[in-house]
Amino acid sequence: MASFIPSLGSLGSIGSLSQTPGVSSGADAGAAGGEGFGSVLKTALEQVNQLSGSAEQQVGSMLTGGSADVSQVMVAVEKADVAFQLMMQVRNKIVNAYQDIEKMQF
Fold first, then answer.
1. For the chain, which residues make up each domain, given as ranges?
2. What is the mean pLDDT of the chain?
3. How far apart are CA 104 and CA 46, in angstroms?
4. CB-based contact 73:59 (threshold 8 Å)
């Protein structure tokens, strides 16, 4: 996953996912002080939600006659869209991995 995230560094806070240390087992993550997989996903979802909220606020400001610049509003909307698409692809990969593991015979 980290191989395609650094190229999206212009997304701001989403680019910070590439700096997340490797995911270890649940017991090791808590003992080593590292973040668990669930907390990394939660943080990423919060960042996507933040970008979306910011874009909505800027669009609303522009529509009500505020001093919002059209180009800045479009950039904010595109950032939110790309971040959402990225999270949907990550979700799809996680679901596919879970289904593959579910099919394994032990």
1. 25-103
2. 77
3. 33
4. yes
Residue 95 to residue 75: CA distance in whole angstroms:
30
Please tell me the number of Cα atoms within 13 Å of 76 on its side-chain side. 20
- CA 92, distance to chain mean position in Å, is 13
DSSP 22-39: PP--HHHHHHHTPPPHHH
Token duo for residue 6: 């650094």
Q: Element (H or E) spanning 35, and its range? A: none
**Cβ(70)–Cβ(62) below 8 Å:** yes
pLDDT tens digits, one per residue of 65-74: 887 789 999 9
- Worst-scoring range by mean pLDDT, 30-34, 40-44, 95-99? 30-34
Q: Rounded to 5 degrees, what angle do the CA atoms 61, 63, 65 make?
A: 70
- The amino acid at residue 36 is G
Phi, psi (degrees; rounded to nearest 5) at 66? -70, 180
